[in-house]
Automatic annotation (TrEMBL), chains A, B:
<dbReference type="InterPro" id="IPR002577">
    <property type="entry name" value="HTH_HxlR"/>
</dbReference>
<feature type="domain" description="HTH hxlR-type">
    <location>
        <begin position="11"/>
        <end position="109"/>
    </location>
</feature>
<keyword id="KW-0238">DNA-binding</keyword>
<dbReference type="InterPro" id="IPR011991">
    <property type="entry name" value="ArsR-like_HTH"/>
</dbReference>
<dbReference type="GO" id="GO:0006355">
    <property type="term" value="P:regulation of DNA-templated transcription"/>
</dbReference>
<keyword id="KW-0805">Transcription regulation</keyword>
<protein>
    <submittedName>
        <fullName>Putative transcriptional regulator</fullName>
    </submittedName>
</protein>
<keyword id="KW-0804">Transcription</keyword>
<dbReference type="GO" id="GO:0003677">
    <property type="term" value="F:DNA binding"/>
</dbReference>
<dbReference type="InterPro" id="IPR036388">
    <property type="entry name" value="WH-like_DNA-bd_sf"/>
</dbReference>
<dbReference type="InterPro" id="IPR036390">
    <property type="entry name" value="WH_DNA-bd_sf"/>
</dbReference>
<dbReference type="Pfam" id="PF01638">
    <property type="entry name" value="HxlR"/>
</dbReference>
DNA sequence: CAGGATCCATCAAGATACTG
DNA sequence: CAGTATCTTGATGGATCCTG
């Protein structure tokens, strides 16, 4: 039994389940795997997300210690988001998801357009 | 660009995201990693799920070719669910989630009660 | 630039009862 | 045993406008 973020979990997988039972957070992490990003960059890269939702998700990820938020006291404002060490450790998880997704498409779907989908796992 | 289950995805991770953006499906897969299960077994093992929700999720997973449903024409009825080959290939994904969850607890949470959480990855 | 504030629509999911 | 059928609710996310 685990206790984290004010909740109890019977299995460590359910922690991951709970954190990422969400339409956006995985995508945000995905883009942050490339390196730190400004708010605006994330807003543009995480396709279709609204500002309100992005803000909420960033706050939530920060609260759960998966990302770090650094504010530069400038005008205009500059805020940079990056993965924490534990957030960075999600890379292998995303990698497995990425690879399974490709297997799944091969079996049950199709590639409709080639795009050099960012390879974040070359290392 | 990928096309699967009537939708387009820009990245294979978003396929996984889409399938498992859900409170229950990961847990169902998790229990099926142990082997085939009857409806009732899943109902008991996936803690807190209702019958209605379980049925919906099983149907959805079946439609997406992640699980197989076999009906035995008996009275009383017997229905057995199991992972398809592509469903079985989710094992490494779940494994990474499992392991990351443990790291996460070490860093940000605590183990409140020891329980020999099913180790499905001993192989 | 990086958000905050509102209002609103949707839908997943819970509760409960019923059935071939 | 393995589901269905309704009804209800709460949270997520969308749309739009505002601001230090």
């Amino acid at each position: 039994m685990y206790y984290v973020n004010g909740k109890e979990y019977i299995c460590s997988v359910s922690i991951v389940q709970d954190i990422f039972n969400d339409k956006w957070k995985l995508g945000i992490i995905w883009h942050l795997l490339e390196g730190e990003k400004r708010y605006k960059e994330l807003f543009e890269e995480v396709s279709e997300i609204t500002q309100k939702t992005l803000t909420i998700k960033l706050r939530d990820l920060e609260e759960k210690h998966l990302i770090k938020r650094v504010v530069f006291p400038e005008i205009p404002p500059k805020v940079v988001y990056s993965l924490t060490p534990i957030g960075e450790k999600l890379r292998p998880v995303l990698k497995e998801m990425f690879e399974w997704g490709i297997l799944y498409v091969k079996e049950c779907g199709e590639v409709t357009k080639m795009n050099a989908c960012e390879v974040k796992f070359s290392n």
